[in-house]
Amino acid sequence: MTKLHLLCPLGLGLGGSCFIRFCRRGFQAVSSSSSTATATVTATAKQMSTECCTFGPYKVDPKEVFYSTPLSYAMVNLRPVVPGHVLVCPRREVKRFVDLTIDETTDLWLTAQRIGGGLECYHKASSLTFTIQDGPQAGQTVPHVHIHILPRKDGDFERNDEIYDAIDVKEKKLKEKLDLDKERKDRSLEEMSKEADEYRSLFFLKS
Asked: For residues 139 and 171, what is the distance between their CA atoms, to the nearest angstrom?
């Protein structure tokens, strides 16, 4: 992993000097002062804790959101298929991909690119799967556009296409949980919140 020391932070909003760690397609910005980094992450977490995001007709617990822009947000998954499986959604409730504005589409994919690169590095993966189930016949169960991002490793599935079947199953279970408020069987809110905290520390740069 290479570190590049920046005396001028290129308008990234960090202030002072910082390090950019380059790792494959992703990067991680780290302040030269650990206390400064901790303060930045804490401030970002507090800001997100006051934000209200929705996922279709459902409210998203702010503790599950680890990254946001004015048009998009990223959240951890209730039932991940692989470690690092997260969702990136537009803030506006939009059912179909074709109904996104140009700005929303651009921001959504730029957010997905950034999140994917960071999580691939974090989970020491070698590839990424990006997928959208656009409409009911495509397997979409929550009527809100969302991109599945999955860090991939060699041998994680015997046949590569099996991952799409696994996503379909998890998507249906997610809707059952949201609709019926069934008891969480896979992960607790505490577990998801802890994961979101870990990811938030990777993406503490304000967008």
From this structure: 8
